[in-house]
């Protein structure tokens, strides 16, 4: 599998990374055996970065991943986890809360050090100056203490993520739902700033939180109705051509060569294999052009997330 440099970390990461949200049983029950099979199949296929978080399943994702990586598998992969978000509406960006969260993550992951540690969804903080100072300082201290090799932050609003990259000496950031068929602002608006500060970028949610799927997003999806409706028209076009918009969407995301790593949320081998196939199958340029034309009216349309108003 193609490897790409992750900013100035010195890590060479697989173009496809494994996202662990579904390990936390948030999208339906998945067994220990299924998760272990998916994780180890991914590693055997060349995936060397797995992302999880204390928030996913209130620690369940980390527990499942910790078990799956036993027996020498931990040494074959870079593990990224995220702290400070504990539940859908529960956040703790304080030094004490961050430390407590990280200690729990290390225990669940059965490791003494994670490769990447991020403050999770910082747009939900009520004081960004506090995050850029106190939370960042705690991450930096944890790095010095050997609890994490590299540190960073994640959030949806690119304006806030750009401020984080400029204000803090971050190694890595995760951006979600900005590097996909309907929105490439991750590349056009954020990557130049990331490169200027040596920050490695991971692209999460390349199917835009379910927008680019046949079933569409969950009822709680925060985006505007016109975005949902337009993406469904694009999905119908793909079906009429005998393909799945999710497959085309993964192909498109992998084609963003400037992005070091794109995460897939697979939790079963069958789901993983679809994404591995998308990596190796040439994209249908004619269909892609038609889909992009359908999506043109909602190109780069975003939504409010957290407390950010920039």
From TrEMBL:
InterPro entries: AKR, LGALDH-like, NAD(P)_OxRdtase_dom_sf, NADP_OxRdtase_dom. Residues 16-293 form the NADP-dependent oxidoreductase domain. Gene3D superfamilies: NADP-dependent oxidoreductase domain. GO terms for cellular component: cytosol. One of its GO terms (molecular function) is L-galactose dehydrogenase activity. Pfam families: Aldo_ket_red. This is Aldo/keto reductase.
């Amino acid at each position: 599998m193609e490897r790409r440099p992750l900013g100035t970390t010195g890590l060479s990461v697989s173009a496809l990374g494994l996202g662990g949200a579904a390990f936390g049983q948030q999208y339906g029950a998945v067994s220990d055996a299924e998760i272990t099979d998916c994780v180890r199949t991914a590693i055997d296929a060349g995936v060397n970065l797995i992302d999880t978080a204390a928030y996913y399943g209130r620690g369940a994702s980390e527990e499942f991943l910790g078990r799956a990586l036993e027996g020498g598998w931990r040494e074959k992969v870079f593990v990224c986890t995220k702290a400070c978000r504990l539940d859908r509406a529960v956040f703790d960006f304080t030094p004490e809360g961050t430390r407590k969260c990280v200690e729990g993550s290390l225990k669940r992951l059965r490791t003494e050090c994670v490769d990447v540690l991020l403050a999770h969804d910082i747009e939900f903080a009520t004081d960004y100056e506090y995050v850029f100072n106190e939370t960042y300082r705690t991450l930096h201290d944890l790095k010095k203490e050997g609890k994490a090799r590299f540190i960073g932050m994640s959030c949806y609003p690119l304006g806030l993520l750009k401020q984080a990259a400029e204000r803090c000496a971050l190694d890595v950031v995760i951006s979600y739902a900005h590097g996909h068929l309907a929105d490439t602002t991750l590349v056009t608006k954020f990557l130049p700033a990331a490169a200027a500060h040596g920050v490695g970028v991971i692209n999460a949610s390349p199917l835009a939180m379910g927008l680019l799927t046949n079933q569409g997003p969950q009822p709680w999806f925060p985006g505007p109705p016109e975005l949902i409706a337009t993406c469904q028209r694009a999905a119908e076009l793909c079906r009429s051509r005998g393909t799945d918009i999710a497959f085309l969407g993964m192909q498109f995301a992998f084609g963003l060569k400037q992005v070091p790593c794109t995460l897939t949320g697979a939790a079963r081998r069958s789901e993983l294999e679809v994404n591995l196939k998308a990596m190796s199958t040439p994209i249908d340029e004619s269909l892609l052009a038609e889909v992009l034309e359908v999506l043109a009216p909602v190109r780069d349309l975003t939504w409010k997330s957290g407390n950010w108003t920039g």
